[in-house]
Amino acid sequence: MNDKKAAAYRLGFITLAILAVLTIVEFFVAVYMETLVLLFIIALLKAAVIVQNFMHIARLWREESH
Amino acid sequence: MSAVSTTHESHDDLHAGGHEVPYSTQLRSNRLGLWLFMFSELFLFGALLTTRFVLWGNTRPDLSQEIGLLATGILLASSFFMYRSEVAIANGDQKAFLRSALVAATMGIIFFIMVVVMEWNIFGLSGDLFGIELFGHLKPSDGVYGGVFFAMTGMHALHVLSGVAFILIIWWNGRRGFFTAERHWGVEATAIYWHYVDVIWVFFYPVLYLMGKAV
What are the Cα distances from residue B99, in Å, to A51, A55, B193? Predict the structure, then answer.
């Protein structure tokens, strides 16, 4: 497996781990804290992580062929 | 959309009057188009989200937390596999691309079944597993709670279904050797669309299942 592919796979695992942790935190915040603002912030964080790491939004303004 | 490409325009092409758009230019246009489409869809989902808060206020229907959390986990995992699929084809690994795409599609179908069969309970089933209620009780006719819940999850489920269809299409075309490490826009577009479906659920899950007092 080349370095670039391995790094990309590693990023995938890290992103999934972050999403899993945030989801669990979100659940406990909802059950024990009942705060809408914090729940929205967690959702925004999860969305940002997906948009940045999985959806490669940076490619929109980066010059690359693939 | 076919991406006609050359890495350089030959003297003869120019003389023939042909305009060959470099693949990198076509790719950037495709990406911008896709993101603009997704931006437009934000208005649709945003309207549904706003409706939820206007009609439910600080309350929500009493839904199964187990189904909600499990379905969310499955959808997040499917996004992970779709990402792996895209990375694989970008690095020329056809087998990993096909395998991961199929896993992502399967998890998408499981999510769809969990929403439609379990949460919506379209077959009117009942039962529990280790004390956990497996099937929902809310109906579309249950006032504002039923109406909004089914509208939001229904619109999202339609996107899940279309996303699964796209994944299966690229899987099928991938088996026929359609995609390469240098050219796989179909895979990239499908992956981005699938992640978008996931992002929508990232907001829908807490507003439907977690926010507000259960009534």
Answer: 23, 20, 19
Interatomic CA distance for residues B27 and B29, integer angstroms = 5
Within an 8 Å CB–CB cutoff, is residue B6 touching chain A? no
Predicted model pTM? 0.90
CB B112 within 8 A of CB B168: no
pLDDT tens track, chain B, 215 positions: 444 334 444 444 444 456 788 998 999 999 999 999 999 999 999 999 999 999 999 999 999 999 999 999 999 999 999 999 999 999 999 999 999 999 999 999 999 999 988 989 888 888 888 888 888 889 999 999 999 999 999 999 999 999 999 999 999 999 999 999 999 999 999 999 999 999 999 999 999 999 999 99
Contact criterion met (CB < 8 Å) for B211 and A59 = no
